[in-house]
Design brief:
Largest sheet: 7 strands, antiparallel
Number of strands: 24
Shape: elongated
Oligomer: single chain
Strand content: 15-25%
Structural class: alpha+beta
Helix content: 40-55%
Radius of gyration: 31 Å
Distance between the termini: 51 Å
Length: 700
């Protein structure tokens, strides 16, 4: 940044600042991200950057009237300047008004002035069209070049100026519509927290956000933003978590409650023991997902672009054929001003980005348009069992030991599992706490994912895990409790075996419950075109079968699976032509997420599962699957309707223009008006919140 001068405040009015900063002309600037970051700065209501003028206009919120935003600009993250290709120029309202005024002036000018003024107005579109023709072939911009160029050649300077103006107005309206959809996603980009109040010793000190570490006691008072993920250790408060979960109702928290960053304290004050800070927080991760969504071009958008480019030569060819047949240049130019491409190409990014925001308001974080498309097209759901179809909140029901006291047995098992995030480990630790047992230090811990864990406790190696882990991986006989184990499995209980050295110490039985909404959600997904539902689990077959007998509509269940075996099963489904959505909640599911067409995570932790999934359900319930499916199907339906309407309307306009009933200027005006009617309607439809129980007749 040293090569750039400091930002300069060049204009100030009440509630509005304009800064000039040469760095804003950097071709790598990402305007959408820069504006999103700035608009989430305290005191900023709205921001608009003009890269061509190297300026940014900041509209102030009431609390920002006295802030020095020159220093704020210097703290913009480096990722704001990470765009691979320069952003296209943006048209403002001033451009549209200026061109409209110049068109009116051209009509009143003497002929000698009309040519140079009209040529100057049309030059940008003609040059862009020529460049496109030379580098990309017959694309949409070539049509603008043709209509403006031919109007100039035949001396119709008013028509040339008018069409040039409509090109500029069209670009402005398209940009304004896309800004609106981008603005919805920008609201989900994390606020750039600078300072956090932390209690250290007896003092409360302001600490830079980047310097907060796990274990710090972070203070959050009324009106403040929760900046870290952690545990409430003191106080109570009402939190606005709508930006995180989509829930509008405030959430009451008190000592012992887990809390996520990004929430706003509406009433009260809490002290939070930080568990995750900086880039690892929930707020930062969601922000990162939305930043990617702002930049990503989905497969449907790419298909729309390709189709639009394919249609451009058709319009050009029709104009040429009409001119050859009638020698009427006005008719030919009228046809050239009407192209199918706009109605095909423009709605896709608006509908998709608006849909992502609509889903986020309902507690479903869809990281990209491609994830939205993939879930809408899925015909097969594959569920992990524990924590997904079940609540994942296991509780200990039975403790069977072999020559060791129950409390000592639980103490050893819990000491090994103390650092585990797995529901089984958490349940064992919770049982030790319920019994009032003090855990022992555990060292040299070694985890075998989806199998078990071992550690050195009180001078001996203690292993805790599945029957497969203890009996097969470790070679320890479990025969002494085989009969009891079979009985407990028949009661739909999950079993955890505990061994020390080469001897079995006992087993712990835990029970999980089917999520109360599971049956209804599966029924709803069937109504929305899902044909196959499978369940994968690492549990013993008897345990899984007994529990899942409560859930109708399961096509198949596969038990005793390792993470890599789950991924292999998903790959096999895809190889048979199925489009697979994998739903899970833990690190064990990450390989299957990657293998599937789309992964859906229920995890509220910041782990590999959430990173590898393309959809995250922010509420701890399966209803978000229905929301995601409805959102994807509705977006696809809206875009299909846009295509049908665009082709139908433009075909009619071509016939009218070809019959000589529309002048080139009138044809351009009507074409633009209908295009933006389609665009506006599609944005409105995508932004509507789904009604409860909303269904769609669309099928895969």
């Amino acid at each position: 940044m040293a090569q750039y001068p400091l930002p300069q405040l060049v204009h100030r009015t009440r509630g509005r600042l304009r800064y000039r900063w040469r760095r804003l002309s950097d071709p790598a600037l990402d305007p959408e991200y820069f504006e999103a970051w700035l608009e989430n700065t305290e005191g900023v209501a709205r921001a608009r950057v003009n890269p061509r003028a190297a300026c940014v206009v900041i509209e102030l919120a009431p609390q920002g009237s006295g802030a020095d935003f020159g220093n704020v600009l210097l703290r913009v993250p480096a990722r704001a300047f990470s765009r691979g290709v320069p952003a296209p120029p943006r048209r403002g309202l001033g451009d549209a008004v200026f061109h409209a005024a110049m068109t009116a002036a051209v009509a009143a000018m003497p002929p000698g002035l009309q040519l140079p003024v009209a040529a100057a107005m049309g030059a940008p579109a003609v040059l862009k069209g020529a460049e496109t023709l030379l580098t990309q072939g017959l694309k949409v911009r070539v049509l603008d070049m043709a209509t403006i160029g031919f109007s100039l050649l035949r001396g119709d300077y008013v028509a040339a100026a008018s069409i040039s103006t409509m090109v500029v107005v069209g670009e402005f309206l398209r940009q304004a519509t896309e800004d609106r959809s981008n603005g919805l996603l920008k609201s989900l980009v994390a606020a750039p927290v600078e300072w956090v109040w932390v209690r250290r010793g007896d003092a409360e000190v302001a600490v830079a956000f980047a310097d907060v570490v796990p274990g710090d006691l972070v203070l959050a008072g009324s009106g403040g933003l929760v900046a870290v993920d952690g545990l409430v250790v003191a106080g109570e408060a009402l939190l606005d978590c709508s930006s995180i979960t989509g829930e509008s109702a405030p959430v009451y928290v008190k000592e012992g409650a887990e809390i996520l960053s990004g929430c706003i304290v509406r009433e009260g004050a809490v002290t939070i023991e930080a568990r995750r800070t900086g880039a690892e927080t929930n707020m930062a991760r969601i922000s990162g997902f939305m930043e990617n969504a702002l930049r990503e071009v989905s497969a449907r958008e790419r298909r729309s672009d390709r189709l639009a480019d394919m249609l451009a030569p058709i319009t050009l060819g029709l104009g040429a054929v009409l001119y050859a047949a009638t020698h009427d240049a006005s008719r030919a130019l009228s046809v050239l001003t009407i192209d199918y491409a706009c109605a095909v190409k423009l709605p896709a990014p608006v509908v998709i980005k608006t849909s992502l925001h609509t889903a986020a308001r309902e507690g479903v974080l869809i990281k990209s348009g491609s994830g939205l498309d993939a879930f809408a097209e899925a015909d097969t759901l594959v569920f992990d069992k524990t924590g997904t179809l079940t609540t994942g909140r296991l509780r200990v029901t039975d403790v069977l030991t072999a020559g060791v006291a129950d409390d000592e047995f639980i103490r050893l098992a819990a000491s090994v599992e103390d650092r585990s995030d797995h529901p089984v480990g958490q349940a064992v630790v919770a049982e030790a706490a319920r019994r009032g047992l003090e855990l022992l230090p555990a060292g040299n811990a070694c985890c075998s994912i989806a199998h078990g864990i071992e550690a050195v406790v009180a001078g001996r190696v203690v292993r805790v895990g599945s029957h497969h882990y203890i009996a097969e991986d470790c070679g320890i006989s479990c025969a002494a409790l085989a009969g009891e184990a079979e009985r407990l499995r028949s009661e739909a209980k999950t079993l955890v075996f505990v061994a020390s050295g080469d001897s079995l110490l006992g087993l712990i039985a835990l029970r999980d419950e089917i999520r109360p909404e599971a049956c209804d959600v599966l029924r709803q997904m069937r109504l929305r075109g899902i044909r196959h539902v499978y369940v994968l689990t690492g549990d013993h077959a008897r345990t899984a079968e007994t529990l899942l007998a409560q859930v109708p509509g399961i096509d198949g269940m596969h038990t005793d699976l390792l993470p890599e075996e789950k991924a292999a099963f998903v790959k096999d489904l895809r190889s048979k032509g199925h489009k697979v959505a994998m739903i899970g909640d833990g690190v064990n599911d990450a390989p299957a997420f990657v293998a599937a067409d789309v992964g859906v995570s229920l995890s509220r932790t910041q782990g590999l599962a959430r990173e590898s999934a393309r959809i995250v359900l922010l509420r701890d319930a399966l209803h978000g699957l229905v929301v995601a499916r409805d959102t994807g199907l509705r977006a696809a339906g809206i875009l299909d309707n846009c295509f049908t309407a665009g082709v139908g309307i433009n075909t009619g306009l071509l016939l009218v223009a070809g019959a000589g009933l529309l002048s080139p200027v009138a044809a351009a005006a009507v074409h633009n008006a209908t295009t933006f009617a389609i665009l506006g309607g599609s944005a409105w439809a995508a932004g509507r919140r789904p009604a409860a129980g909303q269904q769609t007749d669309r099928r895969n």
